[in-house]
Write a structure and sequence with these properties.
- It contains eight helices and seven strands, in the order H-H-H-E-H-E-H-E-E-H-E-H-H-E-E.
- It has 219 residues and is α/β, with parallel strands linked by helices.
- A seven-stranded mixed sheet has the order 3-2-1-4-5-7-6, with helices on both faces.
Length: 219
């Protein structure tokens, strides 16, 4: 359990960037996050009157870029070291708060309080049970009509090379599984979204080519 709990703890700037962006440079990472923020704002219909939450805030770059576009943002992460970095990164953002996820997913956040939520580059690492429990948490804390957006991956032409690479890594170091990609079929994701009490928006991208974008709505 210690390996799992500490899988995302980082010490150096280099380790933090590797955990967040793989082989990308800091400049490439920043450009990617700027693009992803624009995507989240559009997909979740975010404006300055809307309150949101983030699952997996990392070092707070997305929160910093998004904060001026929303009323409030509650950021959540399992990593104490990333949360410390995020608080420093967002020191000037007065409408952002940070919370440590332990074993209760998002159960500490208030029910029916959020207009939107999102999770970037997190669900690509999660097994089916973690995905389900996070979606159940999102369903509870969203207002009716609220959005929750996440990305995921399946095995396809875009991701088969990564699957082979991560399969080799797992064979050598099975304890590294927490940081490897977890491949989930689009039909499975649609089913588990429904099981969690949410609906899949027809704007979602659920192709079998590899990378998936899932926009869910609380009825």
């Amino acid at each position: 359990m210690g390996i799992i709990k500490n899988a995302w703890e980082v010490v150096t700037d280099e380790h933090a960037l590797l955990a967040l962006a793989g082989d990308s440079t800091r400049e490439e990472f920043e450009r990617d996050r700027e693009e992803r923020v624009r995507e989240v704002i559009e997909w979740c219909s975010i404006d300055v009157h809307r309150r949101g939450f983030e699952v997996g805030s990392g070092e707070g770059t997305v929160a910093r870029l998004l904060s001026s576009n929303c009323l409030w943002l509650d950021c959540n992460d399992i990593s104490a070291s990333f949360l410390e970095r995020a608080r420093n990164n967002c020191g000037a953002c007065k409408n952002v708060a940070f919370h440590k996820i332990d074993s209760d997913y998002l159960d500490y956040l208030p029910s029916e309080s959020y207009d939107f939520g999102f999770s970037l580059n997190v669900f690509i690492h999660l097994n089916s049970y973690d995905i389900f429990h996070y979606l159940r948490s999102a369903q509870r804390i969203l207002k009716a009509g609220g959005y929750f957006y996440f990305d995921a991956c399946t095995i396809g032409e875009q991701t088969i090379a990564l699957f082979r690479e991560h399969a080799d890594t797992y064979r050598r170091s099975p304890e590294a599984v927490r940081g490897l990609l977890n491949f989930n079929h689009p039909n499975f994701l649609s089913a588990i979204v429904r099981e969690a009490g949410l609906t899949v928006s027809d704007r979602s991208y659920l192709s079998e080519t590899g990378w998936l974008k899932v926009l869910t709505i609380k009825p």
